[in-house]
Amino acid sequence: MADCMAGLRLIVGLGNPGAEYLRTRHNAGFWFADVLASGQDERFGFDSKLHGEVCKVRVGSEPLWLLKPATFMNKSGIAVASALRYYKIEPEQCLVAHDDLDLPAGSVRLKFDGGHGGQNGLRDIMTHLGHGKFHRLRVGIGHPGHRDQVTPWVLGRPSAQDEEAMLDGIARVLQVLPLAVAGEFEKAMQLLHTAGTGNGERGT
Q: Which of the residues 26, 51, 98, 135 is marked catalytic?
């Protein structure tokens, strides 16, 4: 895709702020951002103008910003739009990491553009941007089996087995992330989507 080959300059992890949400499934995007930052001994600091916590990391030879919105999930677009404006970054240079009910725990998928699939953070980002032309990292959290159970499921903590699977998935993403940051998204997708577990995906 010609319009998504520019490489990444911003990675946004979606989640809810506060200790009570720290290890919940809905905070899988925060998990990803935290693992990436801690692997480089970087710490997040709150920036009020960006409505979130930010830090700078280096992936491969490229510097990029990490952002964790502090606006709660359903207002994520405020922070994302502010960061894109402030850093003068195009949406297609942004990767948004989020939890995904349609993927089993441990399954991870990269994609560009598309709908929000009912994910409230993506929904709000698309509302603020007016489109969905940004990259997404879908971190599978599994599905409780009935839609009436979805809210307590996403706001609950995964089992030890599911948490380990999710962290293993994040580790696999980190292996291909330098390719994505450099703009080689097709190659990154191919490597990621053929590694480890990755069955059971439903389209969004």
A: 26
